[in-house]
Amino acid sequence: MEDNPKRQRDMARLLVGTLALIAKILEALPLRIGFPEIGPSLTATETMKRLERVRLDLIDSQPISNHAKELLKVMILEWYGLADICGQAVHAGASQRRLDTAEHQAELIGSASDHLAEELGFPPFLE
Fold it and tell me: Is the pTM here over 0.85, yes or no?
């Protein structure tokens, strides 16, 4: 088992940063979807439940294209994957493979946000 505190911190930053990006996008939608402040009081379970409600119930009511809706849903699904790999790192060690996978998931989320911003006519979310 490889364990590296710096890798764990890097993975935590990716997880929180991409969640903040998703929250920023949700708040910029035509029908604003509020997300609680990201911090110690927001539990992993609460985050997952809120994102699942957004993905399954709230995105489809947005007055945006189906493609934009799918991009949002993909971002949330990719975030779940990132959360899972970060959870594995906590329990089984933050190996280089896990960090590489987490970075890749975060890149996919960032790329989807770029496409979504272009589709919706917003400035890029990652500036």
Answer: yes
